[in-house]
Design brief:
Elements (H helix, E strand, L loop, with lengths): L1 H23 L10 H21 L8 H40 L5 E3 L6 E3 H16 L2 H15 L9 H42 L5 H19 L1 H25 L1
Antiparallel strand pairs: 1-2
Helix pairs in contact: 1-2, 1-3, 3-4, 3-5, 3-6, 3-8, 5-8, 6-7, 6-8
Length: 255
């Protein structure tokens, strides 16, 4: 009887790690996806990898206090995996926020289905494009591979957070701003040059109301540059995704 109870506890721990990753990962953690679907998807993937995990997992304690501690460890591991890869999308949304403010789109905003917050339309557009690229580049498959890999580095009841793991996680968090600058660089530069041009025109022709003329000009330049720089956006996102995938693997190994 204890044998079956122990295997059931291991399955629950695998399910908790899988569900925690789904709750924080890009695409899977989208609030537009019903919670029931996430639970069933987590149960399905947990059941799929359970035989591999159970074969190499030593006996686990069955008392309540130990089970709560093990469940919290699984939540930490799963959430760290999902959140670490989701940082790239936070950076892209932040880039859209910067561009929206500079272009004058900060007033008009839509609901972000990922976080349930109001974000500028530029940020939401870039986020949706990034999701499509993420799927095309098999990022969703990498998440499942990272989940499977995590049990080789951090088995059930084997979480030991090291200082290097904390440093890696802090480094990943700081990449939000780096990602935003890299993604939004072409548009930010074009908008900055347009501001410089408007300043020169206001000096040369003081009769022109630069504030009245400058806003539609900046919107037009921003939208044109946004469309023209889409190939650059795809290229940069692909490179950043490779970097983040490597950092997530490194974070898993250091746990």
């Amino acid at each position: 009887m204890d044998f079956y109870a122990e295997k059931f506890v291991i399955f629950l721990l695998v399910f908790i790690r899988t569900l925690s990753m789904f709750a924080t990962a890009p695409l899977f953690g989208n609030q537009a996806i019903p919670a029931q679907l996430k639970i069933w998807a987590g149960a399905f993937f947990a059941y799929a990898i359970f035989p591999l995990i159970a074969a190499g997992t030593p006996s686990v304690p069955l008392d309540l206090g130990s089970l709560v501690l093990l469940a919290l460890q699984e939540v930490v591991v799963g959430s760290a995996i999902g959140f670490s890869l989701g940082i790239i999308f936070y950076g892209i949304t932040y880039a859209g926020d910067l561009l929206g403010i500079d272009m004058g789109f900060s007033i008009s905003s839509v609901i972000d289905p990922q976080n349930g917050l109001n974000v500028p339309v530029i940020g939401q557009f870039q986020y949706m494009v990034a999701i499509f690229i993420f799927l095309i580049l098999n990022g969703h498959l990498f998440l499942l591979q990272a989940l499977k890999m995590s049990y080789s580095a951090v088995p059930v009841s084997g979480l030991k957070i090291s200082g290097r793991a904390v440093d890696t996680f802090v480094h990943l968090t700081g990449m939000v701003f780096v990602t935003a600058i890299k993604v939004g660089a072409p548009i930010l530069i074009s908008l900055f040059l347009s501001d410089v041009l408007m300043g020169i025109i206001s000096r040369m022709v003081p009769q022109i109301n630069v504030f009245f003329v400058g806003m539609p000009v900046k919107i037009g330049i921003g939208l044109f540059t946004l469309m023209a720089s889409l190939p650059f956006f795809v290229y940069v996102f692909g490179k950043l995704l490779d970097v983040f995938e490597g950092d997530v693997v490194e974070l898993i190994r250091l746990m």
